[in-house]
Amino acid sequence: MKTSYNRIAGNSVERLAALSDGIFAFAMTLLVVDLHVPPREAIHSGPELLRALAALSPQFLTWFMSVLTLGIFWNGQQAQLNQLERGDRHLTWIHIAFLFVVSIVPFSTRLLTDFINYPAALICYWFNILMLGAFLYLSWRCATRGGLVKTDTPIEISKAIDRRILVAQGLYAFGALLCVFDTYASIAFIVLVQLNYAFAPRTFSRLG
Question: Per the CB 3.0–4.6 Å rule, which of 5, 77, 176, 185 could disulfide with 126?
Answer without folding.
Answer: 176
